[in-house]
Amino acid sequence: MSDDWYLEDDFWRNFGSLMFNAQTFAEGADQIDALLELLETPPRAVLDLGCGPGRHSLPLAEAGYPVTAVDTSRSLLDQLDQRKGELPIETVEADMRVFERADAFDLVLVMWTSFGYFENEADHGRVLDRIHASLSAGGRLVLDLVGVEYLARNLQPVHLTEYEDGRILIERPALIDHMTRLDNDWYLIDGDRVHRTHISHRVWSAGEIRRLLSDHGLTVESLLGGYDGEDYDLDAERMIVIARKLEGDPR
User: Fold this and answer.
1) Residue ranges of the Methyltransferase domain (predicted)?
2) Residue of higher predicted confidence among 147 and 249
3) 49 and 99 belong to one structural domain
4) What are the φ and ψ backbone dihedral angles of 59, each rounded to 5 degrees?
5) Does the pLDDT at position 77 exceed 70?
6) Is 250 contained in some domain?
7) 53 alpha carbon, distance to own chain's centre
8) What is the structure's pLDDT at 3?
9) Domain that holds residue 180
10) What pTM does this model have?
11) Which residues, other chains included, contact 248 with Cβ-Cβ below 8 Å and sequence gap of 6+?
12) How much is the pLDDT for 250?
């Protein structure tokens, strides 16, 4: 599989049902409920980058917020189109490195570690520049990440998950490149078949993500360890970043 594993149809075909199921959709709805409380100010227009089949787009639209849902996977967008019915969701097949609508959104979401896919470090900056351009004045960005602080202390070399339908997923994760990337080999045992894939994410510490966002015209307002609103610390399994587009920024 290529470095652009997230563009491979085989990846989503073989592993998508493990990632997108009734439980993860329910978790997505709970996350949106909690996030809207954290944000306090209701958004007028939302951009969901790396939306997948709509774990977060659907509950946002059900709450009455117009959503533009962007993903590179046509098959995942087709699933969202089938689910959305008459909900106010526009689906767009596009790469987050190039998608831009000037000043069109007051909230941009990049959820479930969808920020960090790229091998080329400069591509993450390109994404942030597109986000900055797409946010209205004072608009906010939410990133849902996993922090290096937690991974460095808790990462297990092998993780096994058994599913009710009999499938078994074996994961072999490792922090590489001076703890800047999380590489993971997945082996899905499905009867007499074994599906293999290799995925890789860029990961950041709290300080690194603050600096990166600042370099691209976004200032961090909150750095949380989850959707319960607790501050981010060494024990936090997630790093939820809420940042705002700087007023009057020259970008």
Assistant:
1) 46-139
2) 147
3) yes
4) -65, -30
5) yes
6) no
7) 12
8) 64
9) 150-200
10) 0.94
11) none
12) 46
